[in-house]
Write a structure and sequence with these properties.
The complex is a heterodimer.
Chain A lengths: L4 H7 L5 H12 L3 H8 L5 H14 L3 H23 L7 H12 L1 H5 L2 H13 L7
Helix pairs in contact in A: 2-4, 2-5, 3-5, 5-8
Chain B lengths: L1 H16 L6 H16 L12 H16 L11 E4 L5 E4 L3 E5 L13 H16 L11 H19 L5 H13 L4 H9 L2 H14 L8 H9 L30
Parallel strand pairs in B: 1-3
Antiparallel strand pairs in B: 2-3
The chains are: A mainly alpha, B mainly alpha.
Chain lengths: 131, 252
């Protein structure tokens, strides 16, 4: 719990959950790629775990949850844009399937974390012949 | 793969509306498994009868069985994660349960032999079970249902039928392991169902002529390395005219 100063403040009960969410949001605003790197573990498991704990804590109040959701939504947007604009582009069938998925109402209604789980897998296999 | 992930999104949307919501970590696990199973092509290791198209056919049917609704708009099988002492199991009431410990959560690619086995072997294996109704009662039908599910999972995973040697090891475990206690008890009882199992193992797997005994099988197990890896395992068979589904095809 003490990987980041924010986590240390939480562990000392010195930081309100809403404030944690807002601070988290401000920290990563305009640096969504850094947020994504921490969340997907490429900055190491400790940072990933610290962020997960912060997000869970922030989500315990409506204001904190709103801030955490905003961050997650920016990640979804960035993932989708990266897949749509990648170079070399996705094969035509895969591009059509991706566009179809992104327009799907059921998909759009899912929570950001669920959409990230699905889009991340597409990104993981972006070079597969069976996209 | 993207189409399968969209079907998964629809399935989740449906389940969430009914209040059935797996944890975010279990959602990540299933997304990883579906993604891998959607694009798995077994490596060609020069095993006899290698045919990646058979593997793809089984995996595509498997995913369709899990992700597509039936004519009445219902999903055919529930999907869950839990702590198990096996890779996965099918329960008539709980559906398919996969071993949570073997698949790490996270949004990375499914990695590690055991995790890949869950997607490419366990999933088709467990889907084969609801396609062959029958109780785990230690009967020859039960034995054949287990052998068939293993055979189908193996073809999906490695792209070729198992060898005679692999089949012998597998069936020996089936009838001697405490995890399949009904089969073990039935086999040891030396009754009518046991004799059918012994005949299948002796005459079909080991290709021994005439009447075979448990001692003959035990002896062959001890000489396992003497068996060539080349002969393929026998194709599973229908019991009493029941289904013998070897590619997990299903009624749309």
């Amino acid at each position: 719990m003490s990987h980041w100063p924010l986590n240390r403040m939480i562990s000392r009960n010195a930081l309100d959950a809403t404030l944690a969410g807002v601070l988290l949001n401000k920290t990563f605003e305009g640096h969504e790629d850094a947020y994504e790197a921490v969340q997907n573990g490429s900055q190491g498991p400790r940072a990933q775990q610290a962020l997960a704990q912060l997000l869970t804590y922030a989500a315990s109040t409506p204001g904190g949850k709103q801030a955490a959701t905003k961050l997650a939504e920016s990640e979804v947007k960035q993932l989708a844009e990266r897949l749509q604009n990648r170079k070399p582009p996705l094969p035509r069938d895969a591009k059509n399937a991706l566009d179809h998925l992104l327009r799907n109402k059921n998909f759009k209604d899912l929570e950001a974390s669920t959409r990230i789980a699905l889009l991340s897998q597409i990104e993981n296999y972006r070079d597969s012949t069976l996209m | 793969m993207i189409q399968n992930l969209e079907l998964l999104a629809e399935r989740w949307s449906d389940e969430f509306k009914k209040g059935e919501r797996p944890s975010p970590e279990d959602q990540q696990r299933l997304a990883k498994v579906v993604a891998l199973a959607s694009q798995h092509i077994p490596e060609n290791k020069n095993i006899p009868e290698y045919d990646p198209n058979r593997s793809r056919e089984i995996l595509d049917n498997t995913l369709g069985f899990i992700l597509r609704r039936d004519k009445l708009g219902r999903y055919r099988v529930k999907m869950k994660w839990d702590d198990l002492n096996t890779y996965g199991r099918w329960f008539p009431d709980k559906g398919i349960v996969l071993n949570r410990e073997l698949v790490k959560n996270g949004n990375d690619k499914l990695a590690g032999d055991k995790a890949i086995e869950i997607a490419a072997y366990t999933l088709p294996h467990e889907v084969n079970h609801p396609l062959h109704p029958g109780k785990p009662d230690g009967s020859y039908r039960h034995f054949m249902n287990e052998y068939r599910a293993w055979y189908v999972g193996h073809v999906a995973h490695v792209g070729s039928p198992p060898s005679q040697q692999q089949a012998l090891v597998h069936v020996y475990l089936l009838v001697s392991d405490d995890r399949s206690s009904a089969l073990k008890a039935s086999f040891e009882s030396n009754g009518g169902e046991s004799r059918k199992m012994v005949a299948f193992i002796g005459n079909k797997i080991l290709r021994l002529p005439g009447q075979v005994t448990v001692d003959d099988i035990t002896r062959k197990i001890k000489e396992l390395n003497a068996l060539s890896e080349n002969p393929r395992a026998p194709i599973p068979e229908s019991v009493d005219g029941g289904p013998n589904n070897l590619d997990n095809r299903f009624e749309p």
